[in-house]
Every structure is written in C-alpha cells, then in structure tokens.
Design a protein that fits this description.
The structure is a homodimer. By secondary structure, chain A is of the alpha+beta class. Chain A has a domain at 4-121: Jelly Rolls (Sandwich), CATH 2.60.120. Chain A is 49% helix and 22% strand. Chain A contains 9 helices and 8 strands. In chain A, a hairpin with a 2-residue loop joins strand 4 (61-67) and strand 5. The radius of gyration of chain A is 18 Å and the shape is globular. Chains A and B meet through helix 3 and helix 5 of A and helix 3 and helix 5 of B. The first copy, chain A, binds a DNA duplex through residues 151-153, 172-174, 182-189, 191-192.
DNA sequence: CGTATTTATTATCTTTTGTTAACGTTTCAG
DNA sequence: CTGAAACGTTAACAAAAGATAATAAATACG
C-alpha cells in the first residue's frame, strides 16, 4: 500500500483532468500498489502485454523500439507522469516497445483492467479516460507535425526552446538523437552548428 | 436535414465505436445538417476555430499546414471518415491547419459543441468520445513510430503494403510526398528505385 | 476541343545525413 | 581503485535528400 502523500500526488494529476470526489477516489485506492524499479530494469519488455499503469513518484524512464537490432528511443517519462504502453493496453496486443528505467524509480501502479472497470462504474472515470486520450492526441499530433514539416535542425531548436527542454538536460545525447529521429553523430553536428548553446 | 440512409451511414460508424440505442441517437439527430463542399473549397481555413464535425458521405479531403509559404499535406479524409480539426476543437484555439476538399463532397455535419453537450447528457456518448480519442491515439502512435524509425523509402514501401494504400491510388504524388515527410522529387526517385511497382 | 495549369520525371548541383572508425572522456561495476 | 563499457566528438567517405530548373505528360476547364 503506497503512502498517503504519494497517493495524493497521483490524484493531483488525475484531478487536473477531471476533479474527483472522495468517493470516486475510493474506487481506485484499494487497487494501488507501490513498486520499485531499479535503474536498467524493465517496466515492460517487448512482447509482453501491458497490464499495469504506473505513476512515477521518483525517477525517469524511456521507451524504445527495436529496429534492425538497434534500440530506438522515442519517448521519455519523468516524475509525475503516467507510464504505460498505452498502445498495448488499448489494443490488447503484445507490446512492440520496451519501457526501461533510466534511474532507480519509485512508482504507484494499478492494473489497467481496473481502470477499464472504473470506466463502467463511474462516468467521472469514463471522462477521465476520454480526457487522458485527448491529451495524448494533442501531444502526438504536435509532435507528428514537427516530424513531417521541420528539418532535424529545426526540431532540435524547437525542443531546445520548448517546455520539454528537460529532456535535453537530463537524457544522454544519443537517446535524444533517437527522439528527434536522427543519428547521434548528426545531432552532435547540429549542436556544433548551433553554437552549442550551453 | 440529411436523408435517412445517409444518417444511418453515420450511425454505422459511431456504432462501431459504441453501440447506441435509438434514444441515444435521438439526442444527435436534431442537430445534423447536410452540407456540400465543392472541390477546392475549404472545410476549415487556417486561423478559424473548428466548430463542426463532419462525416463524409462522398468525396475526399486533405489537411495541410503552411510552412515557409509551402502547403504541407499531412492527412487525408475519405468516404465514411469523420473530418474535423480535432486539435483545434479540443484546445479551442485557432486552427493551424486548413482542410480542403479534393473533390466535390457531400457531408453530414453537427456542431462540436453538441458532441461535448452529449458527453454531459449520456455516458454512452462520453464513452464514444473516449473510444474515438483512443482510436486516434493508436493511429498517431503508429504513424509517429514510422516517422522516427523508418527511412523515407521504408515508409513508402510500408504505405504501399498497408491498408492505407488507397492514399497512393487516389491522391496526387506530390501530396503523398508531404504525407511521407519528403519532397516530391525525392518520392519520384524512391518510386523509380522500387521498380515502380505499378 | 484546345489552351493553360497541374503534375511527374529527370538532370545537375548542393547540402545534409548516414556510416564507420578513431579518439579521448566519463561513468560504472567489481 | 581499476579495467571495461558507455558516451560524445570529430574525421572521411558514401548515400540520400533538398533545391532548382527543364521537359514531358496528364488534367482541368472555359
């Protein structure tokens, strides 16, 4: 059972999508567990079906696809983020991506099935599900346009000036290169051209 | 007021997300309108806020972003698709993209506001909203991974072998190039390399 | 129809990125 | 503490893509 203050962090996030009553919360609380994932360990490995939704109390994670024997990191998860292979959970298919801890992580988790069950139990939770998916649509749409319309260099500069700059500050550069859809060598050159703005 | 059989096409689509009762349907029907959009005309122009959701009975559309004075087409809409700047509707901000008819189009439309109102009125509709957003997440996630992980040539080949091949068959090639995130000249070369599989 | 516009291909040249490898530095684990 | 692994930069070369322009073909439309 997770600590009180940790649980309230999770509900702070959920509340930012849909304000919940104490009663709504009670539905979820019995199904929360506390988990530790050590640096380098996996939250989810390729081929497994996603069963859990995590909430990161501390630490960070990445997810990556294996393509031609290479790990292609396409997303990062930080403190206060939900972490899950949403795609695998939604489709019920084995995950094509792996999620790995970049540092020792403390999380709260609950079964994805419980979330779906709560969609049935309460319109509030159903609304949360909608808002969450809509939030993801907005993020994915923005990122996809950048990939389609901007050059790698423009993408780097935009990331540098965005609210996701913490990715640049906290993640190794070759993973950022993946995230931008280019090679590490290419990113090194782009940074040099840009005058290595610290 | 749209024709009976046209309305039933719309509900066929909605039913594939969430089965509706006759009563659920009655909520929406009074707000449906029939619309024609001529080839070349706009469903939505950049800078406008999206107010409507369309359902294409006949015809096709594209949406594009203006970048450095160039139109970058990043999505196509066909018969039986919903058409809307979901991003603009969700965020309530002026649209950064324009949606234009590629051929004469017949549509049913209803105000996005009505959809949101129905989210309030009925959990069934709320669920539809969730399923729709989840469906979009799945599509966006897949496409984004392709953009990050595959080369332009691999992306072309995958499109060629996908269930979206109709894009290749029905759309002009320079727009497909945009859709793949490359230039028309480059796509022409890729097709040549690929042996111009018919 | 027939003319104007759009579209696709090809060629040439430039720029960028990918690939591979070497090197020095940092990080990490035993 | 120390050797191994991981990381970032740089160089040299190859491959691919972008830019521009010319041309040919297809299409649109008055």
């Amino acid at each position: 059972m997770p600590a009180e203050q940790d649980i309230s962090l999770l509900f702070n996030l959920i509340n930012s999508f849909v304000p919940l009553t104490q009663q709504d919360k009670e539905h979820l609380i019995p199904h929360l567990s506390y988990r530790n994932v050590k640096k380098g360990d996996y939250w989810l490995a390729e081929g497994e079906k996603e069963q859990q939704v995590g909430f990161i109390l501390e630490g960070s994670m990445r997810h990556f696809y294996l393509h031609d024997g290479e790990e292609k990191t396409t997303y990062f998860y930080f403190q206060n983020n939900l972490v899950s292979s949403y795609f695998s959970a939604l489709t019920g298919t084995p995950s094509k991506l792996s999620i790995q801890a970049m540092s020792n992580c403390r999380l709260i988790s609950f079964p994805y099935k419980m979330l779906v069950l709560m969609y049935e139990l309460s319109p509030k939770w159903e609304r949360f599900g909608r808002k969450l998916a809509e939030y993801l649509v907005i993020g994915l749409e923005e990122r996809m346009v950048e990939l389609l319309v901007l050059s790698p260099e423009e993408r780097y500069n935009r990331l540098f000036n965005s609210n996701k700059k913490k990715i640049l500050e906290r993640m190794p550069q070759h993973l950022i290169a993946n995230y931008l859809g280019i090679t590490p060598v290419s990113l090194s050159r782009i940074r040099k051209r840009a005058g290595t703005k610290k």
